[in-house]
Amino acid sequence: MRRFAVHLAVIAVLWTTPAAANEPAVRQVIGDQIAAFEADDFAAAFEFASPAIRSIFGTPERFGAMVQQGYPMVHRPDTLRFLEARDGTRGIVQRVLITDGAGRVHLLEYEMIDLDGRYLINGVRLLRGAEAGA
């Protein structure tokens, strides 16, 4: 019986991943950035982007224009639901299900990096077809 309890304890430790432990902080950053987009506060939204993303776009205005054109569901979501998080190659990957104003459902993966104890968004991928599990 004691051996069984030890096995259960080991399984519990292995089952709890760093991604799961950090989900609330990751979800907060994503939610805060989306709230900034909804308010058209591109400067605030830009602050949640990693240095690599900031260097690509240079200004909050260019970053905002990219999101409006390339990710309109993020700019103006109707509903937002967080799905599973997992450890990725460079940080945590958080899946998010977004329904846009027209009722279309979109599955996105946010790549999150930890920079000095603060999570930042290092990229977003819109998943389609087989990537989304369809």
Description:
- Helix content is 47%, strand content 31%.
- The protein is an alpha+beta fold.
- Strand 2 (92-100) and strand 3 form a beta hairpin.
- It is globular, with a radius of gyration of 17 Å.
The domain tally reads 1
- Please describe the biggest sheet, giving its number of strands, its sense, and whether it closes into a barrel: 4 strands, antiparallel
Average pLDDT metric: 87
**Which structural class do you get from the secondary structure elements?**
alpha+beta
In spatial order, strands of the major sheet run: 1-2-3-4
Helix and strand run? HHHHHHEEEE
Report helical residue fraction: 40-55%
Overall strand count? 4
> What percent strand?
25-35%
What order do the helices and strands come in, and which of them pair?
Layout: H1 2-15, H2 18-38, H3 42-47, H4 51-57, H5 60-70, H6 72-75, E1 77-87, E2 92-100, E3 105-115, E4 118-127
Antiparallel strand pairs: 1-2, 2-3, 3-4
